[in-house]
Specification:
Elements: H1 2-16, H2 25-31, E1 59-60, E2 64-65, H3 83-109, H4 115-132, H5 134-141, H6 150-154, H7 156-168, H8 175-186, H9 191-221, H10 223-227, H11 229-248, H12 251-258, H13 264-271, H14 274-281, E3 315-317, E4 334-340, H15 345-361, E5 366-372, H16 382-392, E6 398-400, H17 405-409, E7 417-421, E8 427-432, H18 437-451, H19 467-470, E9 476-477, E10 497-499, E11 510-519, E12 524-526, E13 530-546, E14 549-555, E15 558-565, E16 570-589, E17 594-600
Parallel strand pairs: 4-5, 5-6
Antiparallel strand pairs: 1-2, 3-6, 4-7, 7-8, 9-17, 10-11, 11-12, 11-13, 12-17, 13-16, 13-17, 14-15, 14-16
Helix pairs in contact: 1-9, 1-13, 2-9, 2-11, 3-7, 3-8, 3-9, 4-5, 4-7, 4-11, 8-9, 12-15
């Protein structure tokens, strides 16, 4: 439980400084420094409770009068401006509550899916008007009038502003927020989910509160702000109304797309770490566990089991007659399944790359399917999704996964997420989040060549692709499930088997076995008279080996060196040339040695 709390706390901290929340920061900053009109411009140090002195006269004895002095009243500290706390408290409470229970409440009451968004926009406009027109603010604070503390009453509009911002708060979703959102969408709210939500909310609140307190300090300390408090309130109110219009018209998304996702790296290290995956995986079922054979953004294609079905789909669009697409009908094609939502900034930044791939490789056999798995209730409305897709230029088939059934089938944890399915219907690669577009495109091209060795592919669309890698043998795992380029006697899993080299020359980037080998998932283990042949192109060839024994290295039939192997898995240099060249590598391994992976440089 403690680990889960720490993961949620760190996830919230990262989210609160991500580019996805930039639209709300100016409002939080200004709201922290804009007090009520009657207090505006009054410094916080001290105010006099009343004028010093009084009547002081009295009669004593024979009517003589004696003047009496009265001590000046002690200065009274001005009420503390608690607006920063009220704004952040309202935002965090609103966001946490409606993320967990919003979908359930809306469904139970039969309300429109995007009603919360409209309520949030309306509150933002009303608070803006309240800052510009004090009578409007007094009306907004009436619901808090029964609270006896006067200062709490005065922060009512700030709290209401926070509630409105919480309904419009659409942060970048990593695995932590995804787990909370999915649980809330299904109404499966366990104690673990509540703990995760609360810790995430606290983590989110800390940076926002710092920003709001900074706004209050600026307003208190800078004389120009105090002298122009009324103008500041009008400016803040106007900004809120402009923000509401920008959110309603989706103008802010263009600004967010232009900014780099500077928190993605640290978010992935924390929220997708081994510890986080272990904690968050307990919130899901054990279906389709074969997908765990794949690693996010792996350097090679792997076999991760049959692609799960696209199930529980509410509706489709961008298909003939809006009819559904069955993955079985795409056998023989390479399929990219993209999990996304139209309001997710990370997803929006990935769309141009997917669009380029779909156009470049469609004739070569690539098919793209978008699975729209909503993060928030308003993203369930078909009209919103269709309009968002049209604006982004998404013209490939889209499935509305409103109940997140297909999301679960693929054991997904991120928006966006891309899964590559080969011509036989097997998942071979996936990429969570943004980035590594060159690697994903490289995998697409490799799968297309596997599906049709005669295919003629266009030039890569991503200029970031490594031209040198195209002229170098790729990393090759000695694994019964991950090996590529193997030819010869069919592999037998986890059992000592006699193998024979094929007749004739071994093609480039192909390898074969001879003698006795045991082919396992992690490594190949050499038996009696074990040999391995590999035709490669590179400057140098390397192999991870373990055990105790010798490896004799032959290049183009000539012995070039003998490698002494001892201990745990270690990378050993097999060849080393000044220039890249094509050569036939043959290895003769002592019995018991374990070989893991070839790398080339």
């Amino acid at each position: 439980m403690i680990t889960l709390m720490l993961i949620g706390l760190l996830g919230g901290l990262i989210t609160a400084v991500s580019p996805c929340i930039l639209p709300v920061l100016p409002v939080v900053f200004l709201a922290g420094g804009t007090g009520r009109g009657e207090d505006a411009g009054t410094p916080a140090e001290a105010r006099s409770a009343g004028a010093a002195g009084g009547d002081g006269s009295g009669a004593e004895g024979g009517g003589g009068s004696v003047a009496t002095a009265t001590a000046p009243a002690a200065p009274v500290r001005a009420p503390r401006n608690r607006r920063p706390y009220a704004v952040v408290a309202g935002l965090v409470i609103s966001f946490a509550f409606f993320t967990l229970l919003g979908v359930t409440i809306i469904s139970a009451l039969g309300l429109p899916q995007d009603i919360l968004r409209y309520v949030g926009l309306s509150l933002l406009v009303l608070i803006g008007l309240g800052l510009i027109f004090p009578p409007v603010e007094r009306v907004l604070e009436k619901p808090f009038a029964r609270i006896p503390q006067r200062q709490v009453n005065k922060e009512g509009s700030a709290f209401a502003l926070g509630l409105g911002l919480g309904l419009l708060y659409v942060p970048c979703a990593g695995p932590v927020l995804a787990a909370i959102t999915i649980a809330g969408a299904r109404g499966e709210i366990s104690s673990d989910i509540v703990v995760l939500t609360l810790s995430f909310a606290v983590g989110t609140a800390v940076p926002l509160l710092v920003f709001a307190l900074a706004g209050r300090r600026v307003a208190d300390r800078i004389a120009a702000f105090r002298r122009r408090a009324r103008g500041l309130r009008i400016a803040a109110g106007s900004l809120m109304i402009v923000l509401a219009l920008g959110l309603a018209l989706d103008v802010t998304a263009a600004i967010q797309r232009a900014l780099p996702d500077y928190t993605s790296g640290v978010q992935k290290k924390i929220e997708d770490s081994d510890a986080a995956r272990q904690q968050l995986s307990g919130l899901y079922d054990d279906s389709n566990k074969e997908l765990s054979r794949c690693e996010d953004g792996a350097d090679e294609l792997r076999s991760c089991g049959q692609a799960p079905a696209l199930e529980g789909i509410d509706s489709w669009f961008n298909t003939p007659g809006d009819r559904p697409v069955d993955l079985k009908t795409l056998r023989g094609k390479v399929t990219l399944v993209d999990f996304w939502t139209y309001s997710c900034i990370n997803c929006q930044r990935a769309v141009p790359h997917i669009r380029d791939w779909e156009r470049a490789y469609r004739d070569a056999g690539l098919r793209v399917i978008g699975v729209h798995s909503p993060e928030f209730a308003f993203e369930k409305k078909r009209g919103n999704v269709v309009a968002g897709a049209e604006k982004l230029g998404v013209d490939w088939p889209v499935a509305l996964d409103n109940d997140l059934t297909t999301w679960d089938n693929y054991r997904n944890r991120f928006w966006p997420a891309k899964y590559l399915i080969d011509a036989e219907g097997t998942v071979r690669y996936f990429k969570f989040g943004e980035g590594q577009y060159d690697k994903t495109e490289k995998m697409i091209r490799e799968l297309l060549r596997q599906a049709d060795p005669t295919v003629v592919l266009p030039k890569p669309t991503d200029r970031a692709m490594d031209d040198l890698a195209a002229d170098r043998t790729p990393e090759t795992y000695l694994s019964n499930l991950r090996i590529r380029g193997y030819v010869g006697t069919p592999l037998v899993d986890d059992r000592a088997t006699a193998y024979r080299f094929p007749k004739g020359d071994l093609p480039l980037n192909k390898l074969s076995l001879d003698g006795t080998w045991t082919a396992g998932y992690e490594q190949f283990t050499a038996g009696r008279e074990a040999r391995l042949a590999f035709t490669y192109r590179a400057k140098n060839a390397n192999l991870v080996l373990a055990g105790t024994g010798k490896v004799t290295v032959l290049v183009d039939g000539k012995v070039t060196r003998t490698v002494e192997v001892t201990g745990s898995p270690t990378l050993y240099r097999l060849t080393d040339d000044k220039e890249s060249r094509t050569a036939r590598l043959e290895l003769r391994l002592d019995e018991g040695l374990q070989a893991y992976v070839f790398t080339f440089g």
